């Protein structure tokens, strides 16, 4: 059973394809070029081309295609800095900033450190040497024209290789909120934290490292069944009685592609002492 699951895992397939391609390229270069200097130059050029395509050219092409094909639809997905679609929105919590932090801390979650050279290096060491780092930083994802305001996580095991995690973006509760309107999701929002807040979240589970679907960038692999992570977070907060009035909001904006989801968003109100 585990072997079948591994074969179906797209990250493993992409890793195998990438490894095979690199090996094939090395064998081809070794066969046609006897000089070690030429071999090294060729491989440097190969990886340089990969970097340009994976991190600059392909992301922008995909971003343009997304704008053209989904311009009238709700952007249920957050996106990476280069515009590539990322984790889907699946949680909305209503309450203050203090209530949000208290709820996750009491439920045993850790707030992610900001990305700095120091934390990035510590993350690198923790991942490759299987070291403990419960506050490992998140890569930035974007919604409402800005990166996440908060990120919370729970390690699975002794390193950040696998972890439950969720990103939140603050938004003021307006008198009339039309979650079905693309304009609501696409506008940049300035947040007044003195006014009532809601926290729009994208929850997913990291299950290792792999290559992204379209651009082959090296990144964390995410469990495709995002509804399980959404429900895990709600159950975690419920176990400490930190939320109430839980509802499932059905939307016409379906979560499609590599994710397995019922496309619904869970809403709940945060309790605060």
Protein architecture, described:
The protein has 273 residues and is an alpha+beta fold. The chain has one domain (74-270). Helices cover 38% and strands 25% of the residues. It has helices spanning 2-8, 10-32, 36-69, 97-106, 117-128, 182-186, 226-239; strands spanning 77-79, 85-88, 91-94, 110-111, 142-143, 146-147, 150-155, 162-172, 197-211, 218-222, 243-250, 264-270. The strands form 3 sheets. Strands 3, 4, 7, 8, 9, 10, 11 and 12 form an 8-stranded mixed beta sheet that branches. The protein has a two-stranded antiparallel sheet with strand order 1-2. It has a two-stranded antiparallel ribbon with strand order 5-6. The longest helix has 34 residues, at 36-69.
Task: Fill in the keyword field for this structure.
273 residues, eight-stranded mixed sheet, alpha+beta
